[in-house]
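[Discussion] Sanity-checking designs against the backbone

I'm trying to build intuition for which residues belong where. Below is a structure token string of 108 positions. I'd appreciate it if someone posts a full sequence so I can compare it with mine line by line.
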């Protein structure tokens, strides 16, 4: 359920305080555990280390991200792959086809 419009977007005050100490365009990574914080225009140009439950994922904020939440850009689950034996055979065939493309034919 989304937040009420009359309350407005929630931005972590601690995060805004950390940003105010930095210069715009500074490459310092600001670590945060606040995944539910809405990205505001003041955050554009900074790099945030958003915690995904294990590590801090660096997220560079651009203008198109304003209005979204920080957690949307730091995935908490890692996709390995689907399939088993059949998928493995397909990957081997694809690797062989790629290898055949890169090897030039022998000159006559």
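Best answer:
Here's mine. Compare freely.
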């Amino acid at each position: 359920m989304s937040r009420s419009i009359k309350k407005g977007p929630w931005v972590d005050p601690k995060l805004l305080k950390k940003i105010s100490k930095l210069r715009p365009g500074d490459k310092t990574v600001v670590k945060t555990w606040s995944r539910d914080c809405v990205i505001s225009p003041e955050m554009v140009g900074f790099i945030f280390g958003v915690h995904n439950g294990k590590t801090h994922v660096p997220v560079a904020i651009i203008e198109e991200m304003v209005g979204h939440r920080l957690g949307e850009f730091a995935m908490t689950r890692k996709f390995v792959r689907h399939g088993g034996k059949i998928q493995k055979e397909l990957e081997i065939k694809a690797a062989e086809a790629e290898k055949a493309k890169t090897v030039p034919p022998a000159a006559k």
